[in-house]
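Support reply, case 0932

Customer input (verbatim):
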Amino acid sequence: MNAPLRRVGVVVMILFGLLFANLNWVQAYKADEYRNSDYNGRVQVAEYDRKRGNIEASGIPIATSKETSGELKFLRTYPKGPAYAHVLGYQPVNLAATGIERTENDFLAGNSDELVADRIRDLFTGDQTAGGNVLLTLSTAAQETAYNQLSNNKVGATKGAAVAIDPRTGAIQALVSMPSFDPNPLANHDTDVAQAEYDKLTADKNGPLKNRALSETFPPGSTFKVIDAAAALESGYTKETQIPAGPVYRAPTSGSDIRNAAPSICPEPQVSLIEALTESCNTGFAQLGVKLGADKIKEKARQFGFEQDDLTVGQLNEGGLPVAASHTGDIQNPDGGEDPAALAQSAIGQNNVRMTPLEGAMIAAAVANGGTQMRPYLVDQLRGSDRTTTYYKAAPKSLRQPVNGQVARDLQDMMVSVVQNGTGKNARIEGYTVGGKTGTAQSSADVDDHGWFIGFAMRDGQPISAVAVMLEQAGPGGSAEAARIAGQIMRSVIRGGK
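Our regenerated output:
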């Protein structure tokens, strides 16, 4: 054999060797991944032979499966349509699942290890036992109020989010993102219809598939002043401590002034800390932030949950829907030194401070719960297809302790003053103690401001609900409308008893 043929032979042998190695790699190491892939059509079709379990809230099915006469025996349906879409997600034939449908897929489909006894029984009976049922923490009254109030807000905002949490447990009572979408077409057995609907949603410039409550961050505006106030109280200030205020403040190194929203807000040289929060005094909190320093502000924000990049909401002991990290930004000059101008802006929730609506609700919840922040969760129970066996029951867990009990009580008093005497009056609920903080946040020079409200409702000293509402680019009156919506959501929690 001449040299060229030998070289060709060697190359062919190497190629066959690589092909053999790759085949073994796929069979030995990648088989499970491919078998369980969302895009494996055979697995997906096989799953439709078994009725998928329900997802329920307040005892009401919000994701169900109905029998069909087609090749795929069961069609996934969402009776409440867009109201629960960003929590439930969708379970499609030809697309990747999202939301709770994805995170609890094995249990809903009947494939999880917990349901192995059902599958063994089916081998002998010939039956096809339905998948397990997932019971969520959501209050249907609060969820649907949040969806309806956001969708029909009085300032014409087309984007926003709302989250409500039980401060005592971390159970999520409502979670809504606006605009929403109808998940039913995405679960259509006609894959062309489902793909066309998905393409339409992804092309929508308003981003209806985005979960603004969990995965998007926004400048929090004056809601961030709660964190400033917490840092001040832990540094020796009291509610009555006088802090510098006035109609205008220019931080050292700054080329621009910070002013209040109206000339009537804290024009005097000094105001008490509680008055500054009640009136939402920008000049007071900008100067307070510079006085306390960037390290204290950033550390207190971190203790409330900023910078956490591994939080999820689903079950308490594993996975769930991912939550974007909230950030305070660097607040530094290019040389690494502290930038007072940036710190003054950051202290009033501007500059590059960014927060998720969930984080806003968690801040309010920690204050209402005596300083203890509970880990948020959505899945309350996993029950078998016959509903007699409970495979999982949430046991609430403390996440962190951002402030002690005394500081929490002082913050409660200050936030109650905001609702009773200041900018949060629209959140009042007769017969209940309601506290909160409004926020108006600039996003850029050429668009309207965001409107925020974070707050809580209590009775006889016991927290009932903590809420964050954000109306994106809401313009004038946005924070007042956010407060009104928050009040409506908390009323629904109270009426619903969850």
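We compared this against your earlier run and they match. Two observations from our side: Residues 221-378+399-496 form a domain with the Beta-lactamase fold (CATH 3.40.710.10). The mean pLDDT is 92. Please reopen the case if you see a mismatch on your end.
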